[in-house]
Amino acid sequence: MMNKKEHKNVNIPSAPGKQGGNGDRRRAEGRPDTGPKQEGTPKNSIRMNALVNQIEMAKKEWEKTMDCVGDMVILTDSNGIIKRVNLAVKNFTGISFKKIIGRSWEDLIIDNGLEAMTLYAGCTELLHKPTGRWFELNAYPIDDDELQFSGNVLTIHETTEVKQITERLEKSNRKIERNRKKLQTALTKISSLMQNVIQARDMNVRFPNPHLKKCYEEMDCNKKDCPCHGTEAVRCWQTAGTFCNGEVQGAFAQKYGNCSECVVYKKATADPIYQIGEHFNNMMHVLSMKKT
């Protein structure tokens, strides 16, 4: 039989269906429970953890998305201080994210060799002088009362290939315009010459060509008995009896096929305008020969 003193050390079991131990006792006595927690987490904590995980996952997904973008993307505050950048900015500058964040975006691009060249409506054209690459800078303002944030999103897009294609196209267009003007000039001259032939019946009119060469100098010819040797620049392809290639040539109609491949003829007709002019001259030469 236990005495009264021994009863003080006996643990009283809890009622069925209830947790036992000192925690129940403290709660029953109105004292704070400092013992082991119940297994599991309260519902509000579970929801909060799930929400935090979702936000963290969304943040990572968005960062990965922006890092896949080839354009450089910079988020700044209203003072132009960088708050966020994507991977393209880090790769272009060769600077760590830690050293980029907190800098002025203007200082960042200037220090990395980007110089503003042309201002367009809504954008700025930048030249990277060390490499000759071209970029286009666009700014998109942010002013969000809910986020209590104002600033700008800057995008820097490379336009080197487009710039080069545009320059080649412009160069081609200028060349086309020059040739158009030359063709118009040639047409005007030939029309005038043809009017002289028709009205004055002058078979000696010719289209002037400043690119005629002295064939004996061009070909380093020493055949002094050649009819073209020692003369001023003439249309040797129209002259009968020349000593081309060391052999006496025939009349124009017989040798023109070979003459059209000669370097002297090609230099005289390198410009399409003078090629047209020499076709006119050859026609006049044939007509004058038939008249005689």
Describe it:
The structure is a single chain. This protein has 2 domains: 48-158, Beta-Lactamase (2-Layer Sandwich); 167-291, no CATH class. It is built from 11 helices and 6 strands. The protein has 292 residues and is α+β, with helices and mostly antiparallel strands. The chain has a 6-stranded antiparallel sheet with strand order 2-1-6-5-4-3, sandwiched between helices. It starts with a helix and ends with a helix. It is 46% helix and 15% strand. It is rod-shaped.
Topology (SSEs and partners):
Layout: H1 4-7, H2 22-28, H3 43-67, E1 72-77, E2 82-85, H4 87-93, H5 97-100, H6 105-111, E3 114-120, E4 123-128, E5 133-144, E6 149-158, H7 160-200, H8 215-218, H9 252-259, H10 263-268, H11 272-291
Antiparallel strand pairs: 1-2, 1-6, 3-4, 4-5, 5-6
